[in-house]
Specification:
The chain is about 80% helix and about 0% strand.
Length: about 250
């Protein structure tokens, strides 16, 4: 070595290796369990916000029989569509605050800077939202037995159709919510964007229950709804994560 020339203590290769290790440690620090516990606590703290859609669902299915009348055959024929429409409206009502608070309070920025998995965070957030919305609505749909005179078998099929189709409805609503995130009055546009895409799910779900009610096999329709929900759960978090990152950068 020439005199006066000092050998660097840390080479470029060492710097890159240290940065890579630091990034991997940062990504490991935000694990699935930590994200789930945080989102679960946030959802519990905002109990009033997720109770509003449930109250709306109960109000609709309670007032519907009072407005239609007490004719048993008419109530049985309109029971399934009424419950599904109430479930759809309550679901759309609760999605406007899915990602907006995270953008405003800096949670989204912290996740991006920490190089956390945004698709995983989106999936956890949507899963918890589904449990507190459509999961409870599916159980409350059993009220169609005393309110609309449905049999327990038809009410069970209705519950199964909500469980099979509601994840797809939630994913479509979440996409609409993420697309309007940067707009000033984006919450108004969410139903206008989501409802046209959700109508086929509503038609297939009510059709499946009607097939069982008439003695036909509606399992293929339920399987189609479930397959669509599985595909949407696998694909939608990546789409929403990209949209959220673009909104944060802008």
């Amino acid at each position: 070595m020439l005199e006066g020339q000092v050998q660097p203590l840390v080479t470029n290769a060492d710097t890159r290796r240290i940065n890579s290790q630091a990034n991997s440690i940062a990504m490991r620090q935000i694990s699935f369990g930590q994200l789930w516990r945080r989102e679960w606590q946030v959802k519990q703290q905002g109990a009033v916000q997720w109770l509003y859609p449930l109250v709306l669902f109960l109000v609709i299915i309670t007032l519907f029989p009072l407005s239609v009348g007490t004719e048993p055959q008419l109530l049985q024929r309109l029971g399934v569509p009424a419950v599904w429409i109430a479930a759809l409206l309550s679901l759309v009502m609760g999605v406007d605050g899915l990602f907006k608070p995270a953008l405003d309070n800096g949670t989204l920025a912290q996740l991006v800077v920490a190089k956390a998995s945004l698709p995983l965070w989106v999936l956890i957030r949507l899963s918890i939202h589904w449990l507190f919305s459509s999961g409870i609505v599916a159980v409350l749909s059993l009220l169609s037995v005393p309110l609309f005179g449905l049999s327990w078998f038809d009410a069970g099929i209705l519950l199964a159709s909500i469980i099979a189709g509601s994840p797809m409805l939630l994913m479509l609503s979440a996409i609409a919510s993420s697309l309007t995130l940067s707009l000033k009055n984006g919450a108004v546009l969410v139903p206008l964007i989501a409802l046209p895409m959700q109508l086929p799910v509503l038609i297939f779900a009510t059709g499946a229950v009607d097939l069982f009610a008439t003695g036909l096999n509606g399992l293929p329709v339920l399987a189609l709804l479930l397959a669509g929900s599985i595909v949407s759960v696998l694909v939608t978090p990546w789409v929403i994560a990209l949209t959220l990152k673009m909104s944060w950068l802008n």
